[in-house]
Structure formats: structure tokens, C-alpha cells
Task: structure prediction
Amino acid sequence: MSHFADNLRELMRRRRLSQRELADSVGLSQAMVHRWVHAKNNPDFEQVAEVFDIPLDMLISVDINSISDREIEQRRALARAIGMVGVEEATRRILVAGSAASGPVPLEVKDETGSRKVPKGRGRTG
Result:
């Protein structure tokens, strides 16, 4: 199920954007935007996602009413990272940034007996 019309209304509300202003930004009539808002027609989704600077999948498949502006910004940043460097590199960068923010993460392994041990050089110092 597409959440597009609801999401469009919510994004317009959050940005304080009128149908006329959205129509002007995409180069279409206000009547066309009105049809989008009332789920009578579907737009070029990529163009609308670009206007609001959000990932396309979020515009269509996520209920934006249920998420904060902060989460939208996080998803926007992730989509940009993936677009610039690809999924694997974006994931690596996120993991590195997360571990740097939270400090060193000790790596624990279990030996054959099930006892936990920390490999050399991976324990916390101090």
C-alpha cells in the first residue's frame, strides 16, 4: 500500500508549503498537485522526493506521520551515503562512526568450553 498522498500532505504541513508553492517548484499546475494530495493521480515520485529531499522509498512506503524529523534526516543522510559510495561502503562508514561515538567495543569470543575470552589487543585498557 502506498502512503504517498498522506506523506505528501504531512511533508507539505511540516514545510509549511502550499499546493501552489509545490506546483511552482515542480513546474506543474496547482490542480495537478491537488490530485496528488487527494490520491487521484500519481506524480513522478522521484521528482517529488527530490523536492522534499527524502529517499524515494520513504516517500512511498513509510508512514511519515509516525516518524520524527530527526529520523527523516538520518534516513536522508543514509540514502546520500549509499548513493555516493554504495551500500557496502556506507555500512562500513556507519559502523565505524558508531563505534567511534561509543568508544572501543571489546570483541568477545568463546573458546571450546564456552568460556568467554577477549583476544589479545582487544581488551579495555586502564
